[in-house]
UniProtKB/TrEMBL annotation:
Keyword Flavoprotein belongs to the record: yes
FMN hydroxy acid dehydrogenase domain: residues covered: 63-338
Signal peptide: none
Keywords: Flavoprotein, FMN, Oxidoreductase
Cofactor requirement: FMN
Residue spans crossing the bilayer: none
InterPro entries assigned: Aldolase_TIM, Alpha-hydoxy_acid_DH_FMN, FMN-dep_DH, FMN_HAD
Substrates-to-products reaction catalysed: (S)-lactate + O2 = pyruvate + H2O2
Pfam families recorded: FMN_dh (PF01070)
UniProt name for this protein: L-lactate oxidase
Entry's family note: Belongs to the FMN-dependent alpha-hydroxy acid dehydrogenase family.
Length: 338
């Protein structure tokens, strides 16, 4: 199965919102929420994609001839490439009836592990979502990262117990999910967290803690103060706040502020191995890719995930070779032009 066949298969079963476009750039879905579009004007997802395209790579092949090594080490584990599948939830609401959240994670988690990367899993108001996600991770020897919403303290404790039982090597919280409608006006309250509250959650997690949804230097410094081991520079695909910057626009300044103190991941509009190279050159340690992995699952299940991951990894390796980087540590800022 090739990537074109995956797209064609996905178009037959993706529901009314996602069009399984040749390139997932946010233009077909725009403000089509609750589908896979963005909030308000729907322009943030488009901006995420376009800002990566504004960055050029600097070709230089006057160097030692050798194969590019895309391998990536994080928290004591080594992966084929610095790529993670991003957490996606509410599958039937957003992407049609083919899979619910449990079925999606049962395909995605082992398929990513078998492809040499790892998947972040989502969370939801249905307790079975986290239960199913953590069970899928446990069944794959902890090779996945459960992502918990910023619930109230008691709910977080219950979910963290499930996460600990999964043996996952890290845990994440998408703190920007405080802007999602289903998290508002809950009893007990859920949503934004103070630095002190986050510090308690980080301590309770017991494994490296990844805070997703950081878009400013100030936010990154708060994450550092709370004890996060990593952050994800992310605007939630434009789904929680309209007219905010693209992740490519803020990544470098955040890296300069906290890159020596924690791992920096980034998501939002990255769609090729060339885009991944650009993110690494701007200082990111790894990237998260969301919606295209949904297309890969709907269009080809585990084989779709393997095919898409291989496509990204091959494109990254080719870009590294043409820019004179033999491994990830050799990718530098001078290899891109902003």
């Amino acid at each position: 199965m090739n990537y074109q066949e995956i797209l064609e298969n996905a178009r037959t079963c993706m529901g009314p919102y996602c069009k399984a476009c040749p390139v997932c750039n946010g233009k077909a879905c725009t403000s089509q929420m609750p589908g896979p579009g963005a909030k308000g004007t729907g322009t943030v997802a488009i901006r995420n994609y376009e800002k990566w395209q504004d960055i050029c790579v600097n070709m230089d092949t006057i160097c030692e001839n050798g194969k590019a090594d895309t391998s990536f080490e994080i928290f004591g584990r080594t992966y084929k490439a610095p790529i993670f599948a991003a957490p996606i939830g509410a599958m039937k609401l957003h992407y049609g009836d083919k899979y619910d959240d449990l079925e999606y994670n049962n395909i995605l988690v082992p398929a990513c592990a078998d492809a040499g990367i790892a998947a972040f899993t989502g969370d939801g108001v249905n307790a079975a979502v986290m239960q199913g996600a953590t069970e899928a991770i446990r069944a794959k020897d902890g090779k996945g990262i459960p992502t918990v919403k910023p619930w109230d303290v008691n709910t977080l404790q219950e979910k963290l117990e499930l996460i600990k039982a999964s043996g996952s090597f890290a845990v994440a919280m998408d703190i920007d999910a405080a802007g999602l409608p289903f998290l508002k006006n809950l009893t007990p309250p859920a949503g934004s967290k103070t630095t002190e509250e986050l510090a308690e959650i980080v301590k309770a997690a017991g494994v490296p803690f990844i805070l997703k949804g950081i878009m400013t230097v100030k936010g990154a410094l708060k994450a550092k103060e709370a004890g996060a081991s990593a952050i994800v520079v992310s605007n939630h695909g434009g789904r929680v706040l309209d007219q905010c910057p693209a992740t490519a626009e803020v990544l470098e300044e955040i890296v300069q502020a906290v890159g020596k103190d924690m791992k920096i991941f980034v998501d939002g509009g990255l769609r090729s191995g060339v885009d991944i190279f650009k993110a690494l050159a701007l200082g990111a340690d790894a990237v998260l890719i969301g919606r295209p992995y949904v297309t890969a699952v709907y269009g080809g299940a585990a084989e779709g995930v393997a095919t898409y991951t291989e496509k990204l990894t091959t494109e990254l390796a080719d870009t590294m070779t043409m820019c004179g980087a033999h491994n990830l540590s050799e990718i530098s800022r001078e290899m891109v032009r902003v």
